[in-house]
């Protein structure tokens, strides 16, 4: 590969300097940002004349010195880029344009993005809006994208605090561990949150690798996130033990209109199995009738899953009470509405006597973190408990495939993990069948003897 310069005269005493590259049996020529007075150009040597041997002002000579340095630097940079090119790079006019621009801008696109903060900015602007979940292929929900943005903000603040200016390839298990300590000690995040949060930088680094940016490959195997079980207390409905906390909630008498409204929403949540974000977006327009029975067809906000929810008699009764509509919301703003709902849930459960000790988490305002322990049920019962109560209440009554079609879980194993159940080994099914066969044989024998 050879590189040289030539000029193309324009109007007056200014000529544009062009870079000519000969490589791979090609002759490429592109304009640089430099100009020169033709009288100071040495056409034979394709460069600027020696400033000490021309008749020029001091300013002109100083400019010629800088111009010579710039052209020499550009020539060296082009040679380095060609020598270190990847096998997949195509040497053409576009390549030369990119390299020239990179010389003036401090590096090629991938070189600039090798700086971790630069890549994080690029990720937010160009990649995140179109990023898909690996398991479903669907574009990440707004909520998940917000989580990415928050972790990126934490990662930048972590670098500032630690006085780090990392390259993408610098991010390894050691840096991940330090970031984890930052989340725990500085931001007071819980182990549950951190277990999920440290996996997000790994996902971001995968996109960097796809772009050809160098990453530390060990980070994908050495940094392991965790998903500790998040306590989510439920209402116990166990007829054999004579416990029915749902009925206890329904039987509680109150004249407080907000508590009545809260109870209606709780019952709807328990019998529909929907997340609170979906619960308050339910509409009577989504109700259809099939075979004389009424169903609610709803597309879940978090996953985009379309679910068909059979409407329980208790839900139909609430709709009828509200003139065929769902109960009114507490506030129009979704976040504020949810906040009030959560507060009312705890107040209602306390008033209804749901005070058995249950393992859960409470937020410690002083230390700004969740504290795990055993508390009265009304202190740790939350909106998510409604959905989990639904899944647990009907587990064993209906096939898991039926339940997950309502909750929107993509696999039965996800549902079983969600409600804390272990999948029965297939071999156990044999014993169930054999037991039923023995019972049927015994019944047949009893009938035979009776006759």
Question: How would you briefly describe this protein structure?
Answer:
Keywords: DNA recombination, DNA-binding. The chain has 451 residues and is an alpha+beta fold.
Summarize the topology.
Layout: E1 2-9, E2 15-23, E3 26-36, E4 41-42, E5 47-48, H1 58-83, H2 93-105, H3 109-112, H4 116-127, H5 142-161, H6 173-186, H7 191-197, H8 199-210, H9 219-222, E6 237-238, E7 243-244, H10 245-251, H11 257-272, H12 276-279, E8 287-290, E9 293-299, E10 306-310, H13 313-321, H14 334-351, E11 357-364, E12 369-376, H15 377-380, H16 383-394, H17 400-407, H18 412-419, H19 426-450
Antiparallel strand pairs: 1-2, 2-3, 4-5, 6-7, 8-9, 9-10, 11-12
Helix pairs in contact: 1-2, 11-14, 11-16
Protein name: Tyrosine-type recombinase/integrase
Family: Belongs to the 'phage' integrase family.
Domain Phage integrase SAM-like: 133-216
For the structure shown, list the relevant keywords.
Integrase-like_cat_sf, Tyrosine-type recombinase/integrase, single chain, 451 residues, 19 helices, 3-stranded antiparallel beta sheet, SAM-like_dom, alpha+beta, 49% helix, 12 strands, DNA-binding, hpI Integrase, Chain A, 4 domains
Description:
This protein is an alpha+beta fold and 451 residues long. The chain has four domains: 2-110, no CATH class; 114-222; 247-419, Intergrase catalytic core (hpI Integrase, Chain A); 425-451. The chain is 49% helix and 15% strand. The protein is built from 19 helices and twelve strands. The strands form five sheets. The chain has a three-stranded antiparallel β-sheet with strand order 1-2-3. Helix 1 (58-83) packs across helix 2 and helix 11 (257-272) crosses helix 14. The model has no long low-confidence stretch (mean pLDDT 86).
